[in-house]
Amino acid sequence: MKFHHLLFLVMVAVFFSCKPKQKSHQYIHFKNIQELYQFLKWSPENRFPLISAHRGGPMPGFPENCIETFDNATTYNPVIIEFDIAYSKDSVMVIMHDDKLDRTSTGKGSIGNYTYEQLKAFNLIDNNGEETKFKIPILDSVLSWSKGKALLTIDLKKGVSYARVIEKVRQYKVESNSIIITYTADQAKEVHQLAPEMMISASVQKKAELKRLNNMGIPNNRIVAFVGVSAPDKEFYKYLHDKGITTILGTMGNIDKSAMASPAKNVYYHLINNGADILSGDNLPQAAEELDKFRYNKKLSSSHIN
What we know:
Blueprint: H1 3-18, H2 33-40, E1 50-53, H3 67-73, E2 79-87, E3 93-95, H4 116-119, H5 139-146, E4 151-156, H6 162-171, E5 178-181, H7 185-194, E6 199-203, H8 207-215, E7 223-226, H9 234-241, E8 247-250, H10 254-261, H11 267-273, E9 278-281, H12 284-297
Parallel strand pairs: 1-2, 1-9, 2-4, 4-5, 5-6, 6-7, 7-8, 8-9
Antiparallel strand pairs: 2-3
Helix pairs in contact: 11-12
């Protein structure tokens, strides 16, 4: 082999060895809403614990409530993406948590003071205060992106219409990967009456709260139970699991802080082991590592993950 050919091959080898390895995505896919129902119907054989990436899983370079951030989250684990919807001045449903733009974008003041066309001029800012090139997305874009990639838990800011959001979910045919977040029994009742086929995240921190939902006509097979931001006892998890209900524990705040301060304690692993099914929080990389370990140790798998 001639020297220059050999040199070329060496250079190619060095290039590919130095090139950053592309992260692979871990997607969740359901062919229809019946598959979603079955996935979320709790049973020991059917269990597959998940992370819900709060506000989409922001981290350095990836702002909250941003499609690029959602996509990045899927490189850590198969995830549920939790995100927030607000109205622009011209009633476009945009993805934003705060009433004001200042913390998370280069804009200033209330989001309701700007039309969507005006909002396009702003860039999103990550949680370290660094400006990115990413833009404020609209609900249409998120729903379109999510197909075959992630489950969604959809949070509505004050004043946003459940009816309009459900209309969009149906328009994009993503009922099979969407869960609507509610905070009160009356909100859960409204969503169930508007869309009896859709799954609802409902606050269930006491047995009486589940009974009230049932008395309002909401069946257990449409409920994912948010049990709060501090772990309940095993008996309460068993009460919900015996009814086939999957649970969400919010780790944002104190639990995440405790896990980050003492990673050797495997806080997330033990929360899942004690009965939580979905962990909704802000510490995606560490939670992903511990859930991977838990699912491996327990030999848990799902045909809906690829």
